[in-house]
Write a structure and sequence with these properties.
The chain has 145 residues and is mostly helical. The protein has a domain of 79 residues. The protein has three helices and no strands. Helix 2 runs antiparallel to helix 3. The chain is rod-shaped.
Length: 145
């Protein structure tokens, strides 16, 4: 049995379109243009996934620290001898918790902001580059003046 591969699937999905010939139009340039678009989207997606992995790892560490801290606070609370010591431990735990939560939130916001900036930079660079390419495609075909 003879099996044919789908020309629209795989590493060179645009090859089939490059074989099309249209009089007065540079199909290869158009295919290259779209290939670069897909490459930029792929790179931006990889950066976003990497950022989400860093974020998930950081959240895992935060959760472990919260659980460990709660265990230590509970132990300190129940081992306190006087009501004043219990209040001191609770106050210290609350303060440390708030300060830690603020630091963690800043770290998470930083990861999210840098990931968004990196992906936006890739897509913006491609967008700017594509304007010149589109202009060249149409100028070479005699359509832009």
């Amino acid at each position: 049995m003879v099996t044919k591969s789908n020309p629209f699937v795989g590493a060179d999905a645009f090859k089939a379109f490059g074989d099309f010939k249209v009089s007065g139009f540079n199909m290869e340039a158009l295919v290259a243009y779209h290939r670069k678009n897909l490459d930029a989207f792929s790179k931006a997606n990889q950066l976003a996934v990497k950022g989400m992995q860093v974020l998930a790892e950081r959240q895992s560490v935060i959760l472990k620290n919260v659980v460990d801290g709660a265990g230590k606070a509970t132990e300190a609370f129940f081992s306190a001898k006087s009501p004043e010591d219990k209040v001191r431990h609770q106050t210290a735990f609350a303060k440390d918790g708030v300060m830690g939560a603020m630091a963690d939130a800043q770290q998470i916001a930083g990861v999210m902001a840098s990931t968004a900036q990196e992906t936006a930079d890739v897509l913006n660079a491609r967008l700017v580059e594509s304007f010149d390419e589109v202009k060249q495609i149409f100028q070479s075909n005699g359509h832009a003046h």
